[in-house]
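B., you asked whether I could sanity-check this one before it goes into the benchmark set. Here's the sequence:
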Amino acid sequence: MSSRRRFPITAYDQINLTNLIDTLFFLLIIFMITAPLLEYSVDVTPPEMNADPIKPDTDSKIINVKADGSIVFDRRVVSETELQAALSRIEQESGRDTAIYLRGDKDLRYGAVMNVMRLVRGAGFRNVNLVMQEETKP
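And here's what the prediction gave me:
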């Protein structure tokens, strides 16, 4: 039997990063596209009204109030006290200029939305916006 090897053993002194960088850019693009859509995955149907379109920026926060009255903030259900604590923390870190967008379901009682708005105003935020759907044209 011969002791010859079919493939020579060679040491690699360089790592090919091209494939890793391609994968990194692909994942980055996917996350950049899907991250803004995650906030609107909460099942809330705002009422219809003609209003100017809003463009949330990266510093803005969105509070969703579902039809059953539960409050969703940062993609998790929170109580009123947890919301108040989170808003106080944001106010201390970012300041009062942070825009707050309040999305309330159209079947929700008016008082429930106003109660959440009272919590937001009580935390010191003055830039509070109510989110509506664009009115359908007949």
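One thing to flag: Residues 112 and 133 are 19 Å apart (CA to CA). Otherwise nothing jumped out at me.
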